[in-house]
Each structure stands twice: as structure tokens, then as C-alpha cells.
Design goal:
CATH topology: Rossmann fold
Number of domains: 1
CATH architecture: 3-Layer(aba) Sandwich
CATH superfamily: HUPs
Largest sheet: 8 strands, mixed
Bound molecules: adenosine-5'-triphosphate
Mean pLDDT: 95
Distance between the termini: 41 Å
Oligomer: single chain
CATH class: Alpha Beta
Radius of gyration: 17 Å
């Protein structure tokens, strides 16, 4: 199987995450994508609500899509969620399979701040989605050259970074939290079940 691992804070999950994952799945012929909500995100602290709520919203959002799964792995572990540790876990779990890690280009630009990024890039191929307001990947700290327009070679690694232009979704979870806080509607920017969950639990108020 070809499996995509999609880590994120999902605070809350929105249509940009879901549509992006769908386009990645289709373009890379993935058999499934596993959404992995982070427990305690090391780089994002402000306004991060309890993991269990973020997990429940992701579960509700992907329900009914046979290609999408959710893992509570990072929510269950104590301490900060380091992607490197998560990758060790999933590489072992899916030893016989081909894994990809999915992220947006904004995250890729911040990769140097992650815990041991060089090791992550030695372990797994990345699929990097475009995002409004961010430029395409270029040569840089981790990239040594390209094989074709959207496939990049990584320094000291045989893994690749694939760039995928996706349909632009100009909202972020931060923007959605701000809207809720100011009493504005986020309907049709998140799945209806997520909209209802946030309303019912009075999240982000
Ligand atoms: P926040 O505003 O709280 O920082 P976010 O909207 O960036 O949140 P995350 O949960 O941090 O959402 O995102 C998980 C992953 O999905 C990240 O790698 C991020 O780059 C990517 N992503 C999120 N929204 C989009 C989008 N609209 N287009 C492309 N990638 C996205």
C-alpha cells in the first residue's frame, strides 16, 4: 500500500486540510491517508484546545470516507509531539508499505525549526501542498536540486520532496478561531459536523 501520513494541529480541521488530502490522495494514487492530530505541538502553543476535542472533530470530519483514517497516536503520548517519533512508530507499523508525510508549504518553510529535520528527511518522502500566500519550494537548506518541475532531491538522503499545487483555500485554523471569537460564522469553511461540534461545546469563544 501507499500510505500518506498527515500530521497537524487541526485546531480545528477545515476544508483546506480535507480538500488538500483528497487531491494528494488522487494525484499520488495513495491507498489511504492517516490524519494524525498532534498532542502537545512543540511549535504552536497559543489557543491550542484539548487534544480530545481536536481528535473528535477530525474523526467526525473524515467519517464516511473509506480512504481517510485518524490516529490518536500523538494525542495518547505524553509530552510534546515530535514528528520524528511518530514516524518511527508508523514505519514499524507499516514496514512493508510505502509511506509519505504530507504537509503544507508553510510547514515545509519552517522545517528547520522542527526536531531533527534531517533525520525526518532521511526517513520518508514528503508531499508538500501549495498554500495561498506561500511560494513554491526552491533550492534551500534541505534541497539540493530537482528532478523535473515538482520533484526535489534532498541533501544527504535518497528520499524526495514532491510539491503538489492544490486548489487554494485561503483560510487557516487561526483565522477560523478568530472568526468564532468575534462571533462570526465559520459555516461552509469546516464540515457541518465540525461546525456543530464547535457550537455545541462552545469552543474557541
Ligand atoms: P494554524 O492557523 O492554527 O497554524 P493551519 O490552518 O496551518 O493552523 P494545521 O493544523 O497547522 O492548520 O495544518 C496541518 C498541515 O496542513 C500543515 O502542514 C499545514 O501547512 C497544512 N495546511 C493547513 N491549511 C492548509 C491550506 N489551506 N492549504 C494547504 N495546506 C494547508
Amino acid at each position: 500500500m501507499k500510505i500518506g501520513l498527515f500530521g497537524g494541529t487541526f485546531n480545528p480541521i477545515h476544508l483546506g486540510h480535507l480538500r488538500g488530502a483528497e487531491e494528494v490522495r488522487e494525484n499520488f494514487s495513495l491507498d489511504k491517508i492517516i490524519f494524525i492530530p498532534s498532542g502537545v505541538p512543540p511549535l504552536k502553543t497559543e489557543g491550542v484546545i484539548e487534544g480530545i476535542h481536536r481528535l473528535r472533530m477530525v474523526e467526525a470530519a473524515v467519517k464516511g470516507n473509506p480512504f481517510f483514517e485518524v490516529s490518536d497516536y500523538e494525542i495518547q503520548i505524553k509530552g510534546p509531539s515530535f514528528t520524528l517519533n511518530t514516524l518511527f512508530f508508523f514505519k514499524k507499523l507499516y514496514e512493508q508499505h510505502t509511506l509519505f508525510f504530507i504537509m503544507g508549504v508553510d510547514s515545509f518553510m519552517e522545517l528547520h525549526k522542527w526536531h531533527r529535520p534531517e533525520e525526518i528527511l532521511k526517513m520518508i518522502d514528503l508531499i508538500v501542498m501549495s498554500r495561498p500566500g506561500y511560494k513554491k519550494i526552491r533550492q534551500g537548506k534541505f534541497i539540493e536540486g530537482s528532478d523535473g518541475e515538482n520533484c526535489f532531491r534532498i541533501k544527504n538522503s535518497d528520499k524526495k520532496v514532491y510539491y503538489l499545487p492544490i486548489s487554494p483555500f485561503a483560510f487557516s485554523s487561526t483565522k477560523l478561531r478568530e472568526l468564532v471569537k468575534s462571533g462570526k460564522s465559520i459555516r461552509y469553511l469546516v464540515p457541518e459536523v465540525v461546525f456543530e461540534y464547535i457550537k455545541e461545546k462552545k469552543l474557541y469563544c
